[in-house]
Specification:
This protein is mainly beta. It has 2 domains: about 190 residues, Jelly Rolls; about 70 residues, Endonuclease I-creI (Roll). It has 3 helices and 21 strands. A 9-stranded mixed beta sheet has the order 1-5-17-7-15-18-19-21-20. Helix 2 packs across helix 3. The N and C termini lie far apart (about 40 Å). The relative contact order is 0.18. The mean pLDDT is about 95.
Length: about 325
Amino acid sequence: MANVVDARPDNIHWGYFEAERPAVAEVNSGDQVTIRTYSGAPNVTPDDGEPFEVAAEQRAIHDQVTRRQVPGHILTGPVAVKGAMPGMVLEVRILDIELAADWGWNIIRPGAGALPDDFSEERLFHIGLDKVCQVGKLPWGQEIPLAPFFGVMGVAPPPERGTITSIIPGDFGGNLDLKHLVAGTTLYLPIFVENANFSVGDGHAAQGNGEVCVTAIETGLNGTFELIVRDDLHFTMPRAETPTHHITMGINPDLDEAARQALREMITLICECSELSREEAYTLCSICCDMEVTQLVNQHVGAHAMLLKDRLP
């Protein structure tokens, strides 16, 4: 039976990552853990009179947890993984993701998003979520299929960085907003502190590449993960793996630089996994690798490179 970490006030850190935050649970390498999360501050939460159910635990988080960085995400954790040490890699197998609410939210904020000057009024949308049919009903009546994933999955950053916002992703992971990280995929995170200290939040029921208005269908999710310490891997940036693709990532204030970083990471991966030279790997990327925008809205934007596994020689 998996360990369970509930999304209750004493298990929450709101808006930040830091190495000094103590773990709220501890597991062995290879253990499974179910982590429950909620999404949304009071200003985006449905009122009691609306046709949605807001969990009492989410209201308690609003009342009892100090929001250390604004804006920022409600994160559950961290979970310590025994044996993890700086320089190793945490393999996060995403075994299952389920909706924790019958509603989600999306907000447009003036001055934010990929078009910060195009919209002058704040608009909040609540979106009904059907767990059985796995669809979301948009306010204008359109139904869209859901593909739940966590926007934020990360380990503790290096201690010298102190307290940092959960908004900006980095080498420790965090607010990656990579829509491919659904159930059945794996995320690899460089480790910077003893026991890694893994946290998760920012549930998305569905999101397009770019997350252009800053928010997707934000919602509470429950995820089951298998956390494995890899002392045979040594990465400087997060990587991911789906059943069909290798994924490398780039993060930078400039999208061109983020894309270059993701591409260089992919060239490195190809050289690690084959006998190709860097020149040959570069050519293979031009022929077979897809460069995609991850997100455009987290101050530091993201790009990722995707290579079909069967394209590796």
